[in-house]
Design a protein that fits this description.
homodimer, about 800 residues, CBS-domain, Clc chloride channel, 3-stranded mixed sheet, 29 helices, about 50% helix, elongated
Chain lengths: ~800, ~800
């Protein structure tokens, strides 16, 4: 019964942990390592992940890509956990240096820190709002020019014939914009592709995604999103705002830019993962707030995706950043729109005001809303499955930048062509009322004073299309138009998500949902006699939008609040909530949410909220990595360099043990030290020459560690001479002397709770004599997940 | 330098911990106990708390009260921590029984549990909504009758003279209602006094407040709040809703009522502190939601006050309960108001709709709002200081129920008299417009077609008064009326809070703030020439209300959201936030928030979010209680009974240690067991007779512990014969085998973080050989707080 599970390779799985690979020195005298997992009787871990030969080849061939620094090495097996991701340290490293600094600091010092945190959050909000404003204005202007030119062209050629020239003009316009957007993403910063929400989720969860919060990423993101929206793709500019806010936060809070090589010598206290994470939460919230005009939704988004420990002051600051962000956006947009002081445009997308009086709902409509939620869940699952296949296809065959750019241009051209065809063949003409809100009404073959209703959906920025679907009078769209639009836009959006362009999936999802929701409302009104009084199509469009978006992204609490804030009407709270719940339940039955799919496809060791429910029979003994590479409190430099240089293990944390002098007893745990700390120590040559018993180094400050943060040099770049290898290093001052520990018998849920609640990176497992027997890291915990057949264990792979 | 702090009495301070008092057996062979605290050099803990002889006498004389079960023994020194409060266990007790049950449970079983959690939350929301609805309707009806009778009486006597008869009628009406309310509170359930928010805060924080979530408390609360509102006191019915929701939650989630002696045999899994706390959070949120029509605000309130570990699914369920609650209230109220389906009354208090168009604000108004925030902070601090003095006076002199009832009646009579006088001498007559919203306009000495404007504020339920201050046309009130009203209502409300009646402070605060805010707006409009266009008094009334409420209760995030949701207008978010921030900062400079003052006056060991900033120089060694009463894994029954019976220590948690057989080495920690568990074991006689080596008991189930939860019998009620005293008890199966531990050198903030994030009750401090050296409990951590002169240490006292 035992030993039915084996790890892929013990030498290759211990990236984050200090578990030894072959040849690394064992902790002398410790217990025998337990390579195998004892499974309790009657249970077995269901194994799916296999690393087939084909997969391995695939990875080898993609090695050249990874060397060029682009994340093309995504394995196309989501039952793997990649070892390449490091974790972030969301637990303070309480070593002597840190404690001394904290103890030196006066009450007033802490108060100043608190004030500077508020200042940073204010700045984050302000800058995020400005960026949102910039994106909005540029998109408005460029899209205005594009649609104006194409409209004039179409109008010219409608009469004389030869509309194919208009089509070509439109397609060329789109492709050109998209080409620029795709080139900067594919060639300069591939991490800027997509909405960035999965990456920020991972970051807040504690996974270090390389280059995700750099200035270059921000620039590419902003440029890319402008190009892809103006290029007419089925995308939104809202998702990327979250990523942009996060980058702004990471930059502002550090008081320096490594890319620009400028250090303003401020906020040095914040140069560690814990503080930076807090600010990034605020930045993400500010991004949501600017995107949807939903400051509370932004706070909840940050909490839902990131925070494990709820801290009142932190949340309050996050809220402040969100408020400032939406206010800044609103203020500058009001100036741009020549209505200074009009604070009614709090976000990039504005759903328009839903008045309670006109669109109240009745109790008997609630089952209808729930049915819409189910439809949304189904369609969302379909969307996700299609996109999943597409992504696997892309990973296999479209991993060269030039191919990616070409695919993006192709999508742009096809989008233009399909839109044009739909408009061309549509004969849904609507009278051009005095209160019409269409920016670019296309007359085409309609009578004078009428416009093509299909064009309001296709020949428009997606934000405007959503608003017109919500608010246009009943009868503005005929059912056929809506049905066709839903169908085509669904496939276009699905194809578009995952292209090498910066773009979000929120707005396309809302648009698809609003279209079929409105269709649902119209059909409902037609089959009921009293329909006209309650089946207002706009209301159903809103519910459809919520259902579709919920079905795709599967966010719950924050999405409800975002939708409520965006509609500005609290009384829709309950139905929106029910719709989102239903769509999540239905969708989850088939497949995970879109972001989770992409996170899984990247093999990120993502920690969920709780350990799988049925994992109580696993204990720390079974999940931990062992044996562990331990260091002595006073260790030879040569040994440390060797351990750090061992590429087959690449450990990041090492328990420090102390041997009682002249005693046979095994060594006791006395601390924990990180690779990054050792690197700084080696760089500054903090060695003790035992022979002459003198210190050859100056006293190291916390500042030295902060200066090196976050880009610690690799061990290869540090030269240690043969003489120096014989020196000793005293780790006493630098190690975390009080790491959290658990006994071997601790159940997995308990280990998980401790690990997740405190944002740990390494958790030492000790026996009842306080000797190190193992180390639990993120990957050891993320490996277990609840599959269809009970508890499954993911494979770890060096992808 | 060492030993400058001494504890009051070592034998009396260890309630929660297992620290030994005199005479309890020490852990054999453990380290020497550290009675004294070694303070690091150059620092000293500032000591303020003194237990003067007067205080001690006070306590002794009040002993007779405490025996009668009423919490009259409040010490009037807020620099004390009471030992009488036990803690709740928000960490699962993972003993073998629990793990076996969890392991037996299938995936489907967990899913069913999850579904039943949702059902419970739905029920909580529904019942809370119903209770709110009941209170609202009864208050409306009774107040309607009262005001109608008094109005007719006044109208009759206005012409013929002899208005003093009307005054007497009014005062008698009020006093009668208040008498009923005060009698049920003072004689039947004193814990139901006040708003209940401090009690719920403490409960969610992990402090066990006796009788706080019982059915009787709920009944008294509901009856009491109706009486005090109808009795015309300066109180609101909103605060008590939070308490009511919490009681509903605690009751429904347990599937039984101990008071009614009914056990429905459902939800047995939820019979432990962790699960119950989660539901109580949902109940409190549902209460806020019903009170203010603010479901998101409710969720944030629960999180702000309670949750330490953010859990996505839990929050989502809390939100569900909140939504159902506001929906239920709204639905039934719409039927009561003969407008079924009109969902525009989501809460007990309805601020009325603020339209963006009519009351937009400008950038230059923001400094004005901030100034209002400062005023609110000042007035709030004044309110709190006055109420603090009053509370101390009450503790000393008004602790008999009959005195309490008389005081309440006096306040009711005075309120009526003052109101009447104000109305009588006011000559602010306003025309009775066609759109007037006053329910009971008093003409009094005004001309026909006019009404007394002072009466709209005083001769009305406070909720209506708030609404008319927000929304009445400019010019409805003259400044003198508002000034006098603010002044009198301020003192009335301050006098009223803390009476032995169920009542909240939210509405009076809003009312005071709205009055001076409107006054502020009117003065502003009069000194600016362009005043009429922007200085809308209603807007300033809103800001004033926010400022005053913030200055009194000092809530931040949740209050902002509650205000925004209650106004139904998101664009006020930023100003409300700034106002609340300012009022909090200004108010905190002088005195704490009202709830915190009352919590402190009760000497509750309340844990804040983080350890005091300047506490890094304290370590677990200094804060822990030691030496610790430990039990052996197989312990003599007699020893256990003796330890449990020791009234001088009254410990609740005991580390379990194991001695390696035939070895001199000291015992190692192997588990932790609670008093409540030992009681159940003793009750079921789970003894092993070593002589005959057989088990004399049936196998104990988790069910036995759940049946005894939460009212475990005292040790005195369990009879153990002399023979049985010689038996042994095997604790192996019942102890938590993997308690969290920290080394002695761990800094206080680190200990605090672990303790708070995981909701612990006992944290074992071990040395580097895993031997028990101390125990950290809530009181050890709550003792340290940041005072004006740096870190202060509170005294522990057996109050």
């Amino acid at each position: 019964m035992a030993n039915i599970t084996k790890k892929v390779s013990w030498s290759s799985r211990a990236d984050e942990s200090g578990a030894t690979g072959e040849g690394t020195p064992l902790l002398n005298g410790s217990e025998q390592p337990r390579h195998s997992r004892q499974l309790s009787e009657g249970r077995s871990i269901f194994q799916i992940g296999r690393l087939s030969t084909v997969d391995l080849e695939e990875e080898i061939t993609s090695d050249e890509d990874s060397l060029r620094g682009r994340p093309k090495e995504i394995p196309h097996n989501e039952k793997l956990l990649s070892l390449k991701y490091e974790s972030l340290d969301y637990d303070n490293i309480e070593n002597q240096l840190f404690l001394e600094e904290e103890r030196r600091m006066s009450h007033m010092g802490f108060r100043c820190l608190e004030i500077s945190r508020w200042v940073v959050c204010g700045l984050i909000g302000f800058l995020t709002g400005l960026i949102a404003c910039f994106i909005d204005i540029v998109v408005e202007e460029l899209a205005g020019i594009k649609y104006q030119v194409v409209k004039e062209n179409i109008e010219k050629f409608t009469e004389v014939g030869g509309l194919s020239i208009s089509l070509i003009l439109w397609a060329v316009f789109n492709s050109a914009f998209v080409m620029v957007g795709a080139i900067i993403v594919a060639y300069f910063e591939p991490i800027a592709a997509g909405s960035g929400i999965p990456q920020i989720k991972c970051y807040l969860n504690g996974v270090k995604i390389p280059r995700v919060v750099r200035l270059k990423t921000l620039l590419v993101k902003v440029g890319g999103v402008i190009c892809s929206v103006v290029g007419g793709l089925a995308v939104g500019k809202e998702g990327p705002m979250i990523h942009s806010g996060a980058v702004v936060a990471a930059g502002v809070s550090q008081g320096r830019s490594t890319s620009l090589k400028r250090d303003f010598k401020i906020f040095e206290y914040f140069r560690r993962d814990t503080e930076k994470r807090d600010f990034v939460s605020a930045g993400a919230a500010a991004g949501v707030s600017a995107a949807f005009g939903a400051p509370v939704g932004g706070v909840l988004f940050s909490l839902e995706e990131g925070a494990s420990f709820w801290n009142q002051m932190l949340t309050w600051r996050i809220f402040f950043a969100s408020m400032i962000s939406t206010f800044t956006l609103n203020f500058f947009l009001s100036i741009y729109h020549n209505k200074p002081g009009d604070l009614s445009n709090p976000g990039l997308i504005n759903f328009g005001r839903f008045e309670t009086e006109s669109v109240a709902y009745n109790l008997y409509e609630i089952p209808l809303f729930i049915a819409m939620g189910a439809i949304g869940g189904l369609l969302g699952a379909l969307f996700n499955v299609l996109n999943y296949w597409l992504t696997i296809f892309r990973i296999r065959y479209v991993h060269r930048p030039c191919l990616q750019v070409m695919e993006a241009m192709l999508v742009a051209a096809v989008t233009a062509t399909v839109s044009f065809t739909m408009i061309y063949f549509s004969n849904d003409c609507q009278p051009l009322g005095p209160e019409h809100t269409e920016e670019y009404p296309l007359q085409l073959f309609c009578a004078d004073g009428e416009y093509n209703s299909m064009a309001t959906a296709f020949f428009n920025t997606p934000e405007r299309s959503v608003r017109s679907l919500f608010h246009n009078q009943p009868g503005t769209y005929n059912p056929l138009t809506l049905g066709l639009f839903t169908l085509t836009y669904f496939f276009l959006a699905c194809w578009t998500y995952g292209l090498a362009v910066s773009a979000g999936v929120f707005i396309p999802s809302l648009l698809i949902g609003a279209a079929w929701g409105r269709l649902f409302g119209i059909l409902l009104a037609s089959i009921t006699t009293t329909g006209s009084t309650w089946a207002v199509p706009g209301k159903y469009a809103l519910m459809g939008a919520a259902a579709q978006l919920g079905g795709i992204v599967r966010m719950t609490l924050s999405l409800t609040v975002i939708m409520v804030e965006a509609t500005g009407n609290i009384s829709y709270g309950l139905p929106i909530m029910l719709v989102l719940m239903t769509s999540k339940i239905v969708g989850d039955y088939f497949v995970e949410g879109l972001y989770d799919i992409h996170i899984k496809l990247q093999s990120v060791p993502f920690l969920h909220w709780e350990a799988p429910a049925t994992s109580h029979w696993l204990t720390a003994r079974e999940v931990m990595s062992s044996p562990v590479t331990c260091l002595n409190r006073i260790e030879k430099v040569g040994t440390i360099v060797d351990i750090l240089s061992n590429t087959s293990t690449n450990h990041n944390g090492f328990p420090v043990v102390v041997q009682v002098a002249g005693n046979d007893e095994p060594a006791k745990l006395c601390g924990l030290i990180l690779r990054s700390q050792l690197i700084v120590l080696l760089k500054h040559k903090v060695f003790v020459e035992l022979a002459r018993s003198r210190l050859t180094h100056r006293k190291l400050q916390l500042k030295d560690f902060r200066d090196a943060y976050p880009r610690f040099p690799p061990i290869q770049s540090i030269h240690v001479s043969q003489d120096e290898r014989e020196c000793m290093m005293d780790l006493m001052e630098f190690m975390n002397a009080t790491p959290y520990t658990v006994p071997q018998e601790t159940s997995l849920p308990r280990v998980f709770k401790l690990f997740r609640a405190l944002g740990l990176r390494h958790l030492v497992v000790v026996d009842d004599e306080n000797r190190v027997v193992g180390l639990v890291t993120r990957k050891d915990l993320a490996r277990y997940h609840l599959g269809k057949h009970g508890l499954e264990e993911l494979q770890l792979a060096q992808t």
